[in-house]
Amino acid sequence: MTAKVLIVTGDAAESLEVLYPYQRLREEGYEVHIAAPARKKLQFVVHDFEPGFDTYTEKPGYTWPADLAFSEVDPGQYVAVVIPGGRAPEYLRNDPELRKILKAFFDADKPVAQICHGPLLTAAIGSLDGRRVTAYPALELDMQAAGASFQDTEAVVDGTLVSSRAWPDHPEWMREFLKVLRTKAPVS
Questions:
Q1: Which of 33, 47, 117, 170 is labelled catalytic?
Q2: Mind listing the pLDDT tens digit for each residue in 141-156?
Q3: What is the secondary structure of 78-89 as a DSSP string?
Q4: Strand 4-8 to strand 112-115: parallel, antiparallel, or no bridges (unpaired)?
Q5: Residue 188 pLDDT > 80, yes or no?
Q6: pLDDT (tens digit, 9 = 90+) per residue, 17-65?
């Protein structure tokens, strides 16, 4: 049986932060499912940097179907979870079904990969207290408020939790996450 990895996301997720791990994990041999608040076509976005702007810009990105609604997810069927960033985590952290899913992964010490604004979700369930993480640099204060030690670097590994700042750091993020996955949940 092929090991399965869950990606939890929603509308306004950063396109690259969903699709890069989706494709990279499939390439590695994992079965990957995308879960969202509902089974529907999701509208992702592209965050980019423009000269003269104080922050990133947002443009429409790819659309992609969600395989499952959060209410349909059985965390026991998955060996790991990926939490992309973008604006989706801002509203997804309020979803009680998603909070239950994420708590199950942390309670079972399964691998968790989070990037950019994704750590807003793990902060919402209290799973960052005492941990080392990175995130989009503007979230440094949020990470500290959640009890985490923030590190402004490409990837931070704290046990089975692997975090990264944003899509430019994908190679280091996935390299580190795959090391954890291959140890904890190798492809059979």
A1: 117
A2: 999 999 999 999 999 9
A3: -SEEEE--BSHH
A4: unpaired
A5: no
A6: 999 999 999 999 999 999 999 999 999 999 988 999 998 889 999 999 9
Write down the pLDDT at residue 49.
86
Please give the distance of CA 85 from its chain centroid, rounded to a whole number.
6
Please indicate whether residue 117 is annotated as part of the active site: yes
**What type of residue is 77?**
Q
- The two tokens of residue 179 are 């090391």
Span 75-92, pLDDT tens digits: 999 999 999 999 999 999
Long-range contacts at 158-162 (CB < 8 A, ≥ 24 apart): 158/131, 158/132, 158/133, 159/109, 159/131, 160/109, 160/110, 160/111, 160/112, 160/184, 161/111, 161/112, 161/114, 161/122, 161/127, 161/131, 161/133, 162/111, 162/112, 162/113, 162/114
Rounded Cα distance between 94 and 156, Å, is 25
CA nearest to 180, candidates 122, 119, 105, 110? 110
Residue with tokens 């990926």: 82
Q: Is the pLDDT of residue 100 over 90?
A: yes
134 CB contacts (<8 Å, ≥6 apart)? Answer: 150, 151, 152, 153, 154, 155, 156, 163, 164, 165
